[in-house]
Design goal:
- The complex is a heterodimer of chains A (about 270) and B (about 325).
- The longest helix of chain A has about 35 residues.
- With about 270 residues, chain A is mainly α.
- Chain A starts with a helix and ends in a 7-residue tail after the last helix.
- Chain A has ten helices and two strands, in the order αααααααββααα.
- Chain A has a two-stranded antiparallel ribbon.
- Chain B has two domains: about 240 residues, Rossmann fold (3-Layer(aba) Sandwich), CATH 3.40.50.300; about 60 residues, 2-Layer Sandwich (Alpha-Beta Plaits), CATH 3.30.70.
- Chain B has eleven helices and 16 strands.
- In chain B, α3 packs across α4 and α4 crosses α5.
- The N terminus of chain B is likely disordered.
- The chains are: A mainly alpha (about 270), B alpha+beta (about 325).
- The interface between A and B is medium-sized, with 26 and 32 residues.
- The complex binds adenosine-5'-triphosphate and magnesium ion.
């Protein structure tokens, strides 16, 4: 496990992705700062507007921007690479004759991807917090329910938010892991995983497919608003967790079914 | 020793069931089918413990596929595999830690150093001791002559350096069995010799070594036993001497009367071969029961002035070609 984490985080690619994610809040903050000089408010999404009133909102805005595209993309890269990447390098055969054990390898690979989800999300939140504090006034924050919490309280909520988004991405990671067992071409698995995330979101936006929506792994991706109420409403967190657990179970089983008997010919 | 001409080999060789403990590798009817093609067609390998066993065969004859099955990387379509004291793939967890392997060349993480690569593979086995890891990794690197390049990123390794790294990976722990698929591929002459010496010294320590190759000269120098694959079948298995003695001996006559000599040899039923030199006549002793001395006597009787007369056993190469066919094209 430790070895898996070291390998993941010794890759330049991993850091490039984390760097790109960190850039999102920075970009948002700088753009808003530059364009909002003077005028107190303007057009634009509600979140973006509130940044200028409170720097702590940068994290939230950045997450909202990152969730539909950037996060799934990076998760797609990491999860799609898990098995296919090793197969492509040929290192998979040496891991297996070591022997790493096929189930154990899958578990470790999945844990690595899950950890990356958390680090990626946290990166957005933390850089957002820092850059927000640097460029904008920081103070007690008004929540969606109208209540006000102090900075400490807000940080707790941000952390919860990061957790929520991490959990949101676990289903996608499991899908990526499964796809990764199907091929020896990592780019294919990465692209397929990221594309699925896009497809799910498009389906989720079609009102004609209402019946399908509760089953989409993307269904609760933007449902973190409940964490910004007082008192916190946990239902969406719980529903999301349950849905993601379902995806993990299904695609984890599929990945196991595929990988445990697969001929390693690369 | 079972040597059969290729056409007969459609029938699987039945090796006598030897005491299990004395065999490091044993297979029965091991078969792998890809699509419709039997890439490995029911082979019965028997590799005695403690030997250096050469696994020969032309390109595409199924050596690597066999090795993949031995190591549990690919499932056999049918047949049984005993590896050390276990049955593969059922006992992979107990057996594989005692087996070092190089399969189809080395594989590396290009973004890691040579040392970090080995540390990674070592850590993949949950039972290796992390406290001795660094020492074992460095010892393995030292053993293959990569001590100085240990911290270099592996993507900057040359072909031979990667190959050495692959061999080092097989040596991370003391092993009872080494399965090496073309270990000297890409190595320079020094490296090749080092690998030979390495195999010899490991063998002296009691390690069984199963080495696939098509470099016959190398096999002749390293191995005491060999098996020959051809188009997925095992066409021969036994000691090197047995294999060579099964071959057809040759005669080589040096004489100024080469026309007459050819006539005499042809009269004995031999096909003479032409060479660049006019005064040398060679032929395979392909007639059963025909002894070299009989040939010589016939030459002398015919007043052929014999300046030199040599006989030689079949070379491994001759045997190999005889067993696996002349054609250059790989069997599809
Ligand atoms: N993944 C695969 N799918 C289909 N056929 C395969 C696959 N891998 C190998 N083969 C076929 O199996 C046969 C044996 O291949 P193998 O790699 O075992 O040969 P080899 O004896 O190791 O050859 P070489 O000396 O070139 O390494 C070949 O005909 C090859 O085309
Ligand atoms: Mg091969």
């Amino acid at each position: 496990m430790l070895s898996e984490i070291t390998v993941l985080f010794r890759r330049l690619r991993t850091w490039a992705m984390i760097g790109a994610l960190a850039l999102i809040p920075v970009l948002i903050a700088v753009v808003v700062r530059v364009s909002s000089d003077g005028s107190g408010s303007g057009r634009g999404p509600a979140f973006l507007n509130s940044i200028t009133q409170n720097g702590l909102f940068v994290s939230l805005t950045a997450l909202t921007v990152a969730i539909p595209l950037f996060l799934p993309l990076t998760i797609g890269v990491v999860a799609g690479d898990t098995i296919a990447g090793e197969a492509n390098l040929g290192t998979l055969r040496y891991l297996l004759v070591a022997p790493a054990g096929r189930i154990r390898l899958l578990l470790v690979k999945y844990a690595g991807a899950a950890l990356f989800c958390f680090v990626a999300t946290l990166t957005v939140v933390v850089t957002g917090g820092i850059i927000g504090a640097l460029l904008f006034p920081v103070g007690p924050v008004t929540l969606l329910s109208g209540d006000t919490v102090g900075i400490a309280g807000y940080f707790v909520r941000l952390l919860l938010l990061a957790l929520y988004v991490t959990v949101s991405l676990l289903g996608l990671s499991a899908i990526g892991l499964f796809i990764s067992t199907l091929t020896t071409i990592p780019v294919g698995a990465m692209a397929a995983t990221a594309a699925l995330a896009a497809v799910a979101q498009i389906l989720g936006a079609l009102p004609q497919l209402e019946w399908l929506h509760p089953w989409l792994f993307t269904n609760y991706w933007l449902g973190f608003a409940d964490l910004l109420r007082e008192p916190i409403v946990w239902t969406s967190f719980a529903d999301n967790a349950l849905l993601q657990a379902g995806y993990i179970a299904v695609f984890g089983t599929l990945a196991y079914g595929r990988f445990s008997t697969k001929d390693i010919l690369s | 020793m079972t040597i059969r001409p290729p056409e007969e080999s459609a029938l699987p060789v039945r090796t006598p069931r030897v005491n299990m403990a004395s065999l490091a590798i044993q297979t029965h009817g091991l078969t792998k089918v890809f699509g419709k093609q039997a890439v490995v067609g029911g082979i019965d390998l028997a590799v005695p413990s403690g030997t250096v066993f050469g696994f020969l065969g032309p390109n595409g004859s199924g050596k690597t596929t066999t090795i993949r099955m031995l190591l549990g990387l690919a499932a056999a379509s049918s047949g049984e595999i005993n590896l050390l004291d276990g049955v593969m793939p059922r006992d992979a967890r107990a057996v594989l830690p005692r087996v070092g392997a190089l399969v189809e060349g080395p594989a590396i993480y290009p973004f890691l150093s040579g040392r970090a690569n080995l540390q990674r593979f070592d850590a993949a086995d949950r039972h290796t001791s992390p406290s001795t890891r660094n020492a074992r990794v460095d010892a393995a690197l030292e053993r293959v002559g990569l001590g100085h390049a240990a911290t270099k990123r592996a993507h900057a390794y040359s072909l031979g350096m990667k190959q050495r790294l692959g061999i080092a990976n097989a040596l991370l722990a003391p092993r009872e069995l080494l399965i090496l698929d073309e270990p000297t591929n890409g190595l320079d002459p020094q490296g090749t010799r080092e690998v030979r010496n390495l195999i010899k010294s490991l063998s002296d320590d009691g390690t069984t070594i199963f080495v696939s190759s098509h470099l016959l000269a190398e096999v002749e120098q390293m191995c005491s036993m060999v098996a020959v694959m051809s188009a997925g079948r095992l066409v021969a298995q036994g000691t090197l001497d047995e294999l060579r003695s099964e071959g057809i001996a040759r005669v080589r006559v040096t004489t100024p009367d080469h026309v007459e000599a050819r006539r005499v040899l042809a009269g004995l039923g031999l096909d003479t071969e032409t060479h660049g030199r006019d005064d040398v006549v060679t032929a395979e002793l392909s007639v059963p029961g025909l002894l070299p001395e009989t040939v010589n006597a016939a030459l002398v009787r015919a007043d052929v002035r014999v300046r030199g007369f040599e006989t030689s056993g079949a070379s491994l190469e001759d045997r190999f070609v005889a067993l696996t066919g002349e054609g250059f094209d790989v069997a599809g």
